[in-house]
Amino acid sequence: MFSKLLGSLFGKKTSEASKPPSPPPLPHIPEVHDPSSNIPPSDSLPKTKAPVHGISYAEFLGDRRETGYIKRFKTKVVGVTHENVDGSSRQEAIGRLKVGQKIRLAWEKDNPHDPNAILLFPGTTGNVNMKDCIGYLNANLAADVVNWATNTDRYTYAEVAEILGGYEGADTLGCLLEITVYSEAEPTPPPIPGSSVVSPTAEPSPTPDCEPPISGTSTNASRSIDTGKLTSTPDGAWILNPRCGFRLTIETEKDVAVQVKTLLDSRLHENLYDGEEKLAPIIARSNLRCREIEEYVRTWRPRYLKRIEELKAASKEWATAGEMDREDLLAQFKGQALDAIEVRPRCDLDVLLDSEPVSATIDDALVDRYGFDAIEMYLQHIGKPEKVHRLSADHPHRPRFESLVTKGLARRGPDIPVSAILADFKLKEMGQLAPPGLGPFGRKAAAIQALANLPDIRERLGKVVAFRELFQLQLLPEEFAGIDLGLVAASRAYTRTMANLIVGTYMKAAWELRSFAFYDENPDMVRGWEVRTGSKSCPHCMSKAGRVTSNTPRPRVPFHIGCYCDVVPV
Prior knowledge:
Largest sheet: 8 strands, antiparallel
Distance between the termini: 27 Å
CATH topology of the domain at 2-183: Alpha-Beta Plaits
Strand content: 15-25%
Shape: globular
CATH class of the domain at 2-183: Alpha Beta
CATH architecture of the domain at 2-183: 2-Layer Sandwich
Mean pLDDT: 79
């Protein structure tokens, strides 16, 4: 029955014939599926629903529970600035979300660009409405979700973790989801006292040479990934993953290298998608360098900058363009120069190539005083320090602003000058605050001055606004006057890009290593290999796409830093 259900839902041919054992579930790598022994429970299969605005989809069903989950992580919704097919705004849809709200996963398997595409809608039951669509799950994770639901006993639950943006300097709204992956099977019971079974959460003690253990290693050998011990190079650098096909080498002190290695290995087993935010502070405090990233930048930045200059010289508009038009043209030229690069890591490539990296220790004094996260939040908003931010009690950024107040980086409510609060009001609203005989006002500046001089202005304001909701950043103390916040922001952007590349490349290389350990042990299952690229793959990777026979050496991914291509058996 389940075999017929799979075939009808997904057009998938099934057979009751016996097949070799399946390899362990892996992100991005399709598994050898045995329908006679490994059919997912019917409740975890996607259910075909009525088309929404002409789009056919199947919904992944499942409820949140606190036990029996395999991993829990966070990921950003993609495509949030695009309109939906009915012309509705995804920005408006995100603006209606609430933190903790369930997000429904709608598999758009007939999508001509990506058969694994998953649309995202808020809600629990009933038909979905296209005007509520907030975007897509990122392509790599979507492929995992489809694979888990159709080839394993896993199902995926999503909810809103945080609403991003929506403030001065970052007007665009975004959404951070919390994803939980469950197994339909019952959780493994605890070992019987006195038995020799090792707890899956137990960690071995570090070896005498301080090599970090793999955190969270499972007793099931097929699920563990050994990327190799931290290895020093003759010139004092550290190789993070010596057993992998693509190695990552960092220049830093040994204790920092151990910390990075431990973090990356723990992400393999505990939370695959939060490594970037954990690694960025380590890079910022240690000024860690990654040789593979620096080699890429040395190779491609000169070509990138040269192409921009060529486009300027060829432009008929550039020579006579005003300042604002030149900014517009330069953004266009940078996009064209990036498109001309053959090898393109999946990252904010313009951050990597636009300028020389600033030392990540430039903000050490600020971090020592206020902490990494506080400075990160401060930099996001300090572009207009005079702005008063109105944040309701349930606003996702409210706790962060309250933390800034505690640290002396912001002020709140009654401590904010009345003139600054009034500046956020429209002229008509200020007219409503005025007592009889004052006004009407023709100019905003005159209205602010007149109202600010009223002895009861705070009482009047208190009737239309909650002072507790008001926050305003403060300038840094005089002792930090010599710090260029523009350079600090540039350094932070470069640091985040480095963290993104290191984590993504490490994970991809580790998954490739684990996947092919299975096929190396079962060579008769493989007739050849296929390199699969994605819609955002670079020309270099696209040139490698296709199949090769098993007599040919297996292609090893990642092909370069920040590569997300897959190699699968055929």
